[in-house]
Amino acid sequence: MIQLKNVTFRYPRRKPLFSDLSLELEGNHIYGLLGKNGEGKTTLMKLMSGLLFAKEGSIETLGEKACLRRPKMLEEIYFLPEEMYVPSISIQEFETIFSPFYPRFSSEQFHNYMELFEITDFRQNLMRMSHGQKKKVLIAFAMATNCQIVFMDEPSNGLDIPSKSIFRKVMASAADEQRMIIISTHQVRDLHSLIDTILILDQGEILLNAPVEQITEKLLFKVVDTEGEAQTALYKEDTLRGIYAVFENINREDSKMDIELLFNSALCNRDKIKEIFSLQK
Q1: Considering 202, 218, 234, which residue would you say is the last residue of a domain?
Q2: Do 97 and 195 lie in a common domain?
Q3: What ranges in 11-159 are assigned the alpha helix state H?
Q4: Are 181 and 195 in contact (CB under 8 A)?
Q5: Is residue 281 part of a domain?
Q6: The model's pTM
Q7: In which domain, by residue range, is 172 found?
Q8: Are β-strands 18-25 and 77-80 bridged in parallel, bridged antiparallel, or unpaired?
């Protein structure tokens, strides 16, 4: 669905954010895009959606050159930014004006998702709603477009705890084999149960691109009692239960992935992680 080849990108008067970056993403996945602040997560999604243009290399999205922004591609992409602009119109007017841009938009789904978020008055002015309420409307709209690709930048920011639970339900119900969802987030615990493939962006390159099943096959997440037991760990943290550590899963033991621990382990052991997942150049 999305293919980047040897992409270089820089903002004016800054050093390159990406140099010779290559990446291939497939449908029927919910990708979790992780990285430190300033690593370029939002920029990468904007490049893939045609909102920014690569200086070198090529980007194809749904078989089209992303930079051309052809209607055939744009009608199959929805980008939900972290900082949202909404016009001073009602929710109903928003649906009426913007839904025709998406051929498979379902008003029934939109209203169902809105009901899950407990928003039933479609006469409300979007601009006068709170940040969290606006985000609920745009999440519901994004899922109701039935676009093949949905980009989400920090979608759970601004949602209260009950709304985060509803967000996960909406996402799970909207996911299907025809759709790719890419979520850039720091709130990994909010989305742990949704994400099936992890992308880690660091120092201008994709440090990890692997499904959860492969990660738990190759890495072991385990609590141990002593420093001696953690001696061979790729990464470890002291907790109230003991030492929570990540090991290379030599004996193919079963464990449950911890995204935060995985992320810190990858940043602390870049070369070893690339070796384990065969990403060495």
Answers
A1: 202
A2: yes
A3: 41-49, 71-74, 91-98, 107-116, 131-144
A4: no
A5: no
A6: 0.91
A7: 2-202
A8: unpaired
